[in-house]
Amino acid sequence: MSFLSGVYYVTDGSPTVFEDPVKHRTEAQLEVLRHEYAPHQFVEADPGKLILFPSWLFHSATPHFGNKDRYIISFNVMPTGAINYNLATDSVANIEIHNKEKGL
């Protein structure tokens, strides 16, 4: 239930993996297969690197076997208020977040 996700790498370590959302493009498609195509993209964990991506994009982390611990800060973002304001009169959404734990 988020709009945007992110990973900030505090230390180096194992990469974050993103999967092609249209992985079925390789089925019965000769055109794609004759080029260098991989359904997974590996993003190396470089200290200080921040990556942002749409939350619907399937992602994971590979196992870390380094001598030091791997530290990252991962987060999800959900906008609030008027969304698509002034772009079109029929597509404005007003998103409100309610937190039941704090009674907001």
- Whole-angstrom Rg: 19 Å
Average pLDDT rating: 80
Instruction: Calculate the terminal CA-CA distance, rounded to whole Å.
Output: 18 Å
What is the N-to-C succession of helices and strands? EEHEEEEEE
* Count of domain modules: 1
Q: Which strands sit side by side, in order, in the main sheet?
A: 4-1-6
As a percent range, the share of strand residues is 35-45%
- SS-based class: mainly beta
Main sheet characteristics: 3 strands, antiparallel
Quaternary status: single chain
Write a brief caption for the model.
The chain is mainly beta and 104 residues long. The protein has one domain.
Account of the protein in words:
The chain is mainly β. Helix content is 4%, strand content 38%. The protein has one domain. It contains one helix and eight strands. The chain has a three-stranded antiparallel sheet with strand order 4-1-6, with no helix packed on it. The chain has a three-stranded antiparallel sheet with strand order 3-2-5, with no helix packed on it. Strands 7-8 form a two-stranded antiparallel sheet. The longest helix is centred in the first third of the chain and has 4 residues, at 30-33. The two termini are 18 Å apart.
Which descriptors would you attach to this protein?
8 strands; three-stranded antiparallel sheet; 1 helix; 104 residues
Secondary-structure topology with pairs:
Elements lengths: L3 E6 L3 E7 L10 H4 L6 E6 L4 E5 L4 E3 L10 E6 L3 E3 L9 E3 L9
Antiparallel strand pairs: 1-4, 1-6, 2-3, 2-5, 7-8
